[in-house]
Amino acid sequence: MLILGIESTCDETGVAIVENGIKVIKSELASSAGIQAKFGGIVPEVAARQQLRDIIPALKTVLGGNNPRKIDAIAVSSGPGLIGSLLVGVETAKALSFVWNKPLVGVNHLSAHLYSNWIEKQATPQFPLLGLVISGGHTDLVYMKGHDDFKILGSTLDDAAGEAFDKVARFLGLPYPGGPQIENMASKYTRAKHVNPFPKSMAKKDSFDFSFSGIKTAVVRFVEKNKILSDKSGIPQVCYFFEEAVIESIANKITSALDQYMVKSLAVGGGVAANVKLRRKIASVAKSRNVKVFFPNKGLSVDNGAMIAAAAFFAGKPSDPLTIQAESGAYFS
Ligand code: KG4
Ligand code: ZN
Predict the structure, then answer these.
(1) What is the pTM of this model?
(2) How many Cα atoms within 13 Å fall on the side-chain side of residue 297?
């Protein structure tokens, strides 16, 4: 089964054709991150306008050489996300579904991040599983007994993990998106013998909710107190300890969840899952609990069209193309 997946929830425009939820036939990703970099974050209107420019060329690239008649269904990320951005993808998908007379599947962007772990893998996650979505807008821990059977164990109480990376980067004068910038800066700090001055997490120990704003505030105080911004040489150290504090707090939650829930797999998705040290730490936690861990292949941690097609294949239900709505405030579903 060939599914055309369309993703436009935030600043990316992703289009991909995926066969049986696992094999990418063709994929294209356009991003306005370069344009947003000068604003230090995403300006929704700028993102949506760029997506309007990007979506048709991306579709043309993906469809070039692939007969639309062979596509069995269209899948689109219908939420959560920025409303202007979502509308670009949703309305394009509706129009294609109507003109081609193909079924349309609305996909939840958050669960789609977990479905990146089914794409182009030798082995795929097994149920029951723990799913961790760590992106720019969300941090969710879910327990899934099957494709259609999940329970949200915890979410962030304040900033999302990626949002904390982005805000700290912006404060330090690093461009958007902050995650890769902080990861890169942190790798330049080699004298890691100091004690980490930042708290691991402010969220309650007995809950699976996350909290990152305490770490962020501690970074701001530390930077101001030590005048890090006037002599930039301290920035790699701040990035190192900030990254470590975020990773430790995520790893602690995963450890408690794995102790409480008997699962076969741990699937991680979302932009922050691209972080190499985070992968290493989570992999060691999973190994210590005898659980197989899955991370998306290269390029599939961040937003992309292929994960939307994969989610539709494994867990999607066709919707009436003319009634499907962009839902900016949708929760994990
Ligand atoms: O999943 P995603 O592409 O978009 C959302 O759905 O939000 O995630 C983007 C987020 C940004 O906050 C970005 O800074 C973060 O993922 N990110 C990273 C890394 N690469 C991207 N965070 C930490 N380390 C990275 N290597
Ligand atoms: Zn995302």
Answers:
(1) 0.95
(2) 13
Q: pLDDT, tens digit, for every residue of 126-167?
A: 999 999 999 999 999 999 999 989 999 999 999 999 999 999
Ligand 1 site residues (CB inside 6 A) read 10, 135-137, 162, 165-166, 177-180, 183, 270-272, 274-275, 302-303
Q: Are 291 and 263 in contact (CB under 8 A)?
A: yes
Q: Whose CA is nearest to atom 16 of ligand 1?
A: 271
Give me the residues paired with residue 266 across strands: 130, 293
* Contact between 136 and 10 (Cβ < 8 Å): yes
How does DSSP assign 100-136, residue by residue?
A: HT--EEEEEHHHHHHHGGGTT-SS---SSEEEEEE-S
Q: Which of 156, 281, 302, 328 for mutating ligand 1's site (highest number of atoms within 8 Å of CB)?
A: 302
Q: Which residues of 40-50 are buried (b: 16+ CB within 10 A; e: fewer)?
A: bbbbeebbbbb
